Structures are given as structure tokens and as C-alpha cells.
Amino acid sequence: MQETKHHFNLKNIYHSLSERKQQGRKSFAVLIDPDKVNDESMEQLIELAADARVDYFFVGGSLVISSYLDECVQLIKKRCNIPVILFPGSPSQVSKYADALLYLSLISGRNPELLIGQHVVSAPAVKKSGLEIMPTGYMVIDGGAPTTVSYISNASPLPSDKNEIAMCTAMAGEMLGMRLIYMDAGSGARRAISENMIEKVASCIDIPLIVGGGITTAEKAYLNCKAGADVIVVGNAIEKDPMLIKEIAAAIHSVPVIN
Ligand code: 1GP
Q1: Domain contains 226
Q2: Ligand 1 binding pocket includes 89 (Cβ within 6 Å)
């Protein structure tokens, strides 16, 4: 069937993600907040990421107050083949130059605006963007520090020791039709998500599991993958030390493939 631009757009990137999951291959996503970079720092980051065989760039932030989003995405597209996935903190963060968009519903919170309200308002623009849309159940887990998303959304994060709630939330998200689950301890979290919680959640869903927030070492990235994460997202630690990209990528890609 020929795909029209009105056809629901779930294609290449999602397929590669779920194929990688089936093969037990782990992925590394470097998160870029357009508010915190410029052309010069981006050039360096792109080169390091391409050398380290980073799998995805996530672009977005809770606020994005600058207007650098389009330029930042275009620069990545010009310089390398790493797919760019938008991770929007608000409906205005849509760039048609990206490859795909995490269509986030904050399923760990109880704020209807972030479950469905903002989606309704932005639906025409998102559909028109032509981006690959990936429905994502977004779960914010308490990381020991108030996150921008919790503050802005007025939604409390899921307690970090309540594995059962995390499991039920992820299962409900999958059964509601989400194609990805993203567990996030929040940018710059003091405490990253425990391997125990990752393992429990991974064991009760079949869709790919993204994990991020407060991951600062290659070892933690590796352990999270072993526990069942399919994609590891790192932002802050790389902003502080871009050289970490190589080490973390190597750790994630060294996780033994179990079929
Ligand atoms: C935040 O999961 C991302 O939404 C990444 O967090 O910046 O702490 O790596 P960090």
C-alpha cells in the first residue's frame, strides 16, 4: 500500500528499535537540550557521537527557551547519519527536520493536560509535520530532586521504591497501545532508577524500554542494560564531559546479546 502523508506514521525508526530489542541489542541515545548548545559545541558532539557509533540523538528539554531547535536538528542531519528523535517538553518543540518524535503521554502522573490535553491541541501540527510518531508511555520516577517536568506538570513522580506501581503503570501503558515505555528519573537526577525496578518493569512488557535520568557512568549504563533497558539516554553527564560518549557507548554495545 502506498503511504500517503495522512497515513499514521510509525515506520523505520520504530521498526529498527523493536528489531534491535528482539535481537537483544542495546542502544545509546545522546540527549541534547537545544538551550545548552551552540554550533561549536554541537560540531564536537556530533563528531564524538559518530565515532562512538551512538545509535540515536534525542533532542529536546523540559523548557527549550531558545530558538535553536531547528538549526540544531539540521546541523546533526547535515553532519552524520545518526537518527534524530524529538523528545519534546512541550507541544511547541516540533521540528520537521527531525526523523521521529516521542509522542509522550505522562502515564505516571495524574494531570490530564499531559495525558491527553496538550496532544489534542497540538494534533494538527504534529500530524502535518510528517514526522514518524512514536506513542510513548512516559513514566517519571522519583530521582531525589524536583524535576522541571514534575514542577511544570504539577504531577508527582512515581516513588522510586514502588516497583509494583511502576510495573502496573508500564503494563497499562502497553495495553493502551503505547509502543515504547520511557522511564525517566529526570534530567540531572541525584539518584538514577534502580536496576531492580528496571528489571521488574522490563519483565512485564514486550515493547522497548527507554531508561534515562541521572546516568553518569558507563558502568551504570551497562548495568541498566543488563537489567532490561533497551535504550539508555544520557544528557547532563555528557554536557559536562563529552568524552564520556565513547566510554558509555562502548559499555552499552558490549552487553552480551542473548537470543
Ligand atoms: C532526562 O532522561 C533524560 O529527561 C536524561 O537525563 O540529563 O540526567 O542524563 P540526564
Answers
A1: yes
A2: no
Taking the whole predicted model, whether its pTM rises above 0.90 is answered as yes
What is the tens place of the pLDDT at every residue in 35-68? 999 999 999 999 999 999 999 999 997 776 778 9
Determine the angle formed by the axes of helices 69-79 and 39-51, rounding to 10 degrees.
Answer: 40
Q: In angstroms, rounded to a whole number, what is the distance separating the alpha carbons of residues 186 and 178?
A: 20
Structural contact between residues 186 and 158, judged by C-beta atoms closer than 8 angstroms: no
Q: Does ligand 1 lie within 6 Å of residue 237's CB atom?
A: yes
Domain assignment present for residue 106? The answer is: yes
**No. of H helices and E strands in the chain?**
11, 8
- C-beta of 61 in contact with ligand 1 (< 6 A): no
190 lies in a domain?
yes
Q: Which of 236, 241, 244, 245 is the best mutation target for the ligand 1 pocket, counting ligand atoms within 8 Å of the beta carbon and taking the most?
A: 236
The verdict on residue 256 lying in a domain is no
Q: What is the pLDDT of residue 29?
A: 98
| Residue range(s) defining the domain that contains residue 131 | 20-251
